[in-house]
Amino acid sequence: MSSELLAPLDLAFWHLESTEHPLHLGALAHFGPPPTTAGQEPADVRELLARRAAAVPRLRMRVRDVLFPVGGAAWSADPDFDVSRHVHEITLHGADFPAEAARLAAELMERPVARGLPPWEMYLLSGAPDGSFAVLVKLHHALADGMRAVAIGAGIFDEIAAGRRPARRPHPVPPRSWIPGPGRLLGIARDRLGDLGRAVEVGASVVGSSVARAGRLDPRPTTPLAADPSGTRRIATASLPLDRVHRIRRTTGGTANDVLLALVAGALRRWFEGRGLPLPDADPRALVPVSRRRPGTPAGPGNSLSGYLLDLPVTEADPAGRLTAVRSAMDRNKAAGPHRGAGAVALLADQLHPLAHRFGAPLAAGAARLLFDLLVTQVPLPRSALSFGGAPLRALFPMAPLARGQSLAVAMSPYGGQVHIGLVADGRAVPDLDALAAALTAELDLLDPPEDGGAGTPV
Questions:
Q1: pLDDT tens across 126-145, in order?
Q2: What pTM was estimated for this model as a whole?
């Protein structure tokens, strides 16, 4: 793969990270026991994981600074790539393997990925009594958004690896001077003027929406969703039956995502009450990322995101009323489109010069707190059954990065008849994250009372 400049949003994510505030996303995948054949040893799962990961061209790329554009960076192949630096195995010894895996995953997600190497890690978590195992994947947000992460991580699955075509040898690129000629300078100036106009348009939309909602530009004080970063992480997971989510959708209208967002709102309300805290004066605002990739097209490199802002109706006592409020708000968001409102702040990053990302990152790091209180995202997975080394994928819990100054992020992935939900929190601010995971199940039961007691359960 030839050298490739980081897109503006990728560059922003690269410079926003700090030691206390890592900016990678991830997934915790649980697999059943690998098949065994009489007279043969089970497959070496770690060796297979390393071999599959090394075969993904994107995972061999690292970030390096470039001379032009000034302040920019590029992806280039790591000449000393060694997959053993990225793939590790850890054996767990607790009786409750899923709980131990989540606890260890939280510790591993606290650590930033090495910046001098391709920015990713994978951990094989073994030791379950029945021979099942888990794989934790960490990808720096500069490398991928949710959809791109799925495309990259899917390379480890049997079904994807079997159909992978050999990577094409890149065409040689003729050497080019880092100093642009007059014609190129004119084109750059023209592009910068166009970028400036788009930046002003998007920026005005972002600021206008923020002022209209908050009335002032200072950090939103919603607690316990706001906290100075401690560098610690806690992870909790839950699985909800997808057929029950769709049953609610068919009864009430809207989309399955509307139902899930309403469940998050209700779970937050229940969580506040369980902590003995008063409900917030203003409903917490969620950023709901929206992919700008066209459906049916391959996921290109880097991030391609905008977002909607949604006031989660935590102060609404009626579960049906919460769902109605979410559906109406999301309908308004979709009518306006992802290029308007404060949720379009990701588009603003596309219009800024690389130097603005490099030197403006310390100032922009806390901007998320001005615009929203938590991230709630859905990460689509392939609908077909997946396996690794013959071991069936049982569940995959996506994990979103925390914005600076925020203490909770929620990510959801439908797979295998379940909606698998990964909750990531600042470990110091939210020590009771398991209670929020349990609240999601309780909220589902309010909107769709189980006829046979078959509720979803935290994992």
A1: 999 999 999 999 999 888 76
A2: 0.82
